[in-house]
Specification:
Strand order of the largest sheet of chain B: 1-2-3
Number of helices of chain A: 14
Pfam families (chain B): UFC1
Shape of chain A: globular
CATH architecture of the largest domain in chain A: 3-Layer(aba) Sandwich
Oligomer: heterodimer
Largest sheet of chain B: 3 strands, antiparallel
Order of helices and strands of chain B: HHEEEEEHH
Keywords (chain B): Ubl conjugation pathway
Number of strands of chain A: 7
GO molecular function, one term (chain B): UFM1 conjugating enzyme activity
Radius of gyration of chain B: 16 Å
CATH superfamily of the largest domain in chain A: NAD(P)-binding Rossmann-like Domain
Number of helices of chain B: 4
Strand order of the largest sheet of chain A: 3-2-1-4-5-6-7
Radius of gyration of chain A: 27 Å
Protein name (chain B): Ubiquitin-fold modifier-conjugating enzyme 1
Number of strands of chain B: 5
Largest interface: A-B, 51 and 58 residues
Family (chain B): Belongs to the ubiquitin-conjugating enzyme family. UFC1 subfamily.
């Protein structure tokens, strides 16, 4: 029997067992029916009792709210399997799954895929398997390349479309969160473009080419750096791993292109790394949606050293993405209201403490200076005594570029240019 | 850039740079950008022909200029190998480069993504990122596709993966 390299189920004995198991599955004995209400009752037939226990323990206020959420997942690799699997088991109401490929036999080892599903689109296969696992989840699958103009329009449309039930939620789109699990820069830039235009919060995830590190990043248009604001993280990650030399070394030393090194496939893949990143991604998606804990703006994972760096990136006022700049402007306009809210919150937290004196005696006359001048904390101005050495670059100057444009904005006919190229092509 | 081979370097310096940062969804600005693309392609093709180094044909496959098709060829051991060439202009163009496809070679080499997209990650994407929006289709062909063909075709031919059209038995399936 054919099997993907690295498949865990290769030995004949296990295979027999699998066939047996599959036949019981097909007989329909294990498929459960839909559950109307998520109950906390602890009985064998209730798939949600452990999840609902989160409420009793005070972690989550209302887990059942999860059924009101819609999440769009854009995928093209193994992280998808783990994510959709976990999300589905979490009992979500509506999932969009986006992909471009049909499954290959090689996908059986790292995708959410059964052997008999080879040849189906990955999303259809996922929908089939996932609705078996949890029939309560409403799944929608799309198979289209979102980087093309047509694919992008369909993608935007699917994000905009609202469920009649969720109309009044005050959202810009029909989904609460977009999760990106794509494996290339182009697709990430497309998700970024769509989310910037729709003002839609999204979480990006990625695993490095050598499959030993990864990251997740929460992107809130206007408030945080968008994916186009900072130079590709991939480059930074490559540099961190000492691969920059390799990357540019190939090009730089290639006096003769024929000497280019040719070392197997372009990227490695390790299911455990994907599993960890997928787990982090969904955990943070749940925290974001159900409002518990803190969602890191950026969380890295270096599996070789078990190092988890976090950081925050401000949006780039010179971002090349015009939708990002618009969101930044909107965010700045809302600043006074936000500041007032933050101030009120800090004051509300501070006031009860002042009522009781902390210490009755003060033998050493220690006094604490009041540094809670909130306005100074919240404004961008530098503290007294500090000056900026370089001028602020927040005002974007695209003078050179614009000058060129006007010179080149000629009125030569496009068709004339087409004819010229065709003539060259024909000769 | 200093260490590319001299012929690629001199070719590159003669391809006009583009200036308009506009993608297929930008309406009139995209038309202006398309004009620049045509200018660069015309200059590059003309230069190739006059240097006896003609190696591709490309033209827009739709009126919007968002899909391009054509062919390219590479000469190895005095024999010419032809391949169909196609790509879409991504919605995020020119922030991201076109993903050049050679559909006939799909599945024949590791240096390729699903659907016949050639691997540009290492040798070309960093250059594109640094030079956006000044690079266009002509630059992608010159710095992305040409080196890929030079590195891959000899290996594909020597390993027997790609056969010259004269050697293919008439009954054999085409490789599409």
């Amino acid at each position: 029997m054919l099997c993907a390299p690295g498949c865990l189920f290769c030995s004949a004995k296990i295979e027999e067992h699998i066939v047996q198991v599959m036949s019981t599955v097909k007989a329909g004995t294990s498929r459960r029916s839909k559950v109307k209400d998520m109950s906390a009752e602890v009985v064998d037939s209730n798939p949600y009792s452990r999840l609902m226990a989160l409420q009793r323990m005070g972690i989550v206020e209302n887990y059942e709210k999860i059924r009101d959420f819609s999440v769009s997942i854009v995928v093209s690799k193994g992280v998808q399997s783990a994510i959709t699997d976990i999300l589905t088991k979490g009992g979500r109401s509506r999932l969009h799954i986006w992909d471009v490929d049909t499954g290959l036999l090689g996908n059986v080892s790292h995708h959410f895929f059964h052997r008999e599903q080879v040849g189906m689109t990955k999303t259809d296969a996922a929908v089939q398997t996932l609705s078996d696992i949890n029939p309560d989840v409403i799944l929608e699958s799309y198979s289209l390349n979102i980087t093309t103009v047509k694919g992008f329009e369909v993608f935007m449309e699917s994000l905009r479309r609202r469920n009649s039930k969720n109309d009044g939620n005050g959202r810009n789109t029909g989904v609460d969160l977009v999760l990106s699990c794509v494996d290339n820069y182009e697709a990430r830039m497309v998700v970024n473009q769509a989310c910037n235009e729709l003002n839609q919060t999204w979480i990006e995830s990625g695993v490095s080419e050598d499959a030993v590190s990864g990251h997740i990043q929460l992107l809130i248009p206007g408030e945080r750096a968008c994916f186009a604001c900072a130079p590709p993280l991939v480059e930074a990650e490559l540099a961190l791993r000492g691969l920059r030399h390799y990357v540019f070394g190939v090009v730089a030393s290639g006096v003769d292109e024929r000497t280019l090194k040719r070392e197997g496939v372009c990227a490695a893949s390790l299911p455990t790394t994907m599993g960890v990143i997928a787990g982090l991604l969904v955990q943070n998606a749940l925290k974001f949606l159900l409002k518990f804990g803190e969602v890191s703006p950026y969380l890295g994972y270096n599996s070789l050293k078990d190092y988890f760096p976090t950081m925050e990136m401000k949006p780039n006022p010179q971002c090349v993405n015009s939708a990002c700049l618009e969101r930044q402007k909107e965010y700045l306009l809302e600043k006074p209201a936000r500041d007032a809210l933050a101030k009120a919150k800090i004051e509300a937290e501070a006031s009860p403490k002042n009522e009781i004196p902390l210490h009755t005696d003060n033998e050493w006359h220690i006094s604490v200076l009041d540094d809670s001048d909130i306005s100074a904390l919240l404004s961008d101005e530098l503290p007294k005594g500090l000056t900026r050495e370089l001028p602020c670059a927040d005002e974007h100057q695209e003078a050179a570029m614009l000058g060129d444009t006007s010179v080149l904005a000629d009125d030569t006919d496009l068709e004339e240019l087409q004819r010229q190229l065709d003539a060259l092509n024909a000769s | 850039m200093e260490e590319w081979d001299s012929s690629t370097k001199s070719a590159l310096t003669q391809i006009p740079l583009l200036s308009i940062r506009a993608g297929p969804r930008d309406g009139a600005a995209w038309t202006q950008r398309l004009k620049e693309e045509y200018r660069a392609l015309i200059a590059y093709t003309t230069m190739n022909k006059s240097n006896d180094n003609d190696w591709f044909r490309i033209s827009a496959a739709n009126p919007d200029g968002t899909r391009w098709t054509g062919s390219c060829w590479y000469v190895h051991n005095l024999r010419r190998y032809d391949f169909l060439l196609q790509f879409d202009i991504p919605v995020t163009y020119p922030a991201t480069s076109p993903e050049i496809e050679l559909p006939q070679l799909d599945g024949k080499t590791h240096k390729m993504y699903r659907g016949g997209k050639i691997c540009l990650t290492v040798h070309f994407k960093p250059l594109w990122a640094k030079n956006s929006p000044r690079f266009g289709i002509a630059h992608a062909l010159c710095l992305g596709l040409a080196p890929w063909l030079a590195a891959e075709v000899p290996i594909l031919v020597d390993s027997g993966m790609v056969k010259h059209k004269d050697e293919e038995a008439p009954s054999a399936e085409s490789c599409a």
